[in-house]
Amino acid sequence: MSAVLQNLLKLCDTPRDNALLRFGIANEYAKAQDWPAAAQQAREALARQGDFSAAWKLLGKALAAGGEATAALAAYHEGIAVAQARGDLQAVKEMTVFARRIEKQLAAAAGQGDS
Prior knowledge:
This protein is mostly helical. 79% of the residues lie in helices and 0% in strands. It is built from six helices and no strands. It is globular.
């Protein structure tokens, strides 16, 4: 565990615990490729601030990297709606690209099962 992550974790459940802290922790877990922990912390960030576009994007990334394509797609779709409501067009574009990739992967996987 990195020193940065250890320091951030010390702030959990203190008055400084907020969406940005949890997002930072999720990012650190993502850097370490601990996808379940990254997804959990992204969810914690969203529990504190549901309109946090970057947390939605990170949640989708963590779920996809962790092999949960369907859950990742759902996170991206919800994140896209949130980002559109906020006018965060860059996040909309990015999550749309990621969602399309997953949709193609799922369609390809479904097609392989038919043969």
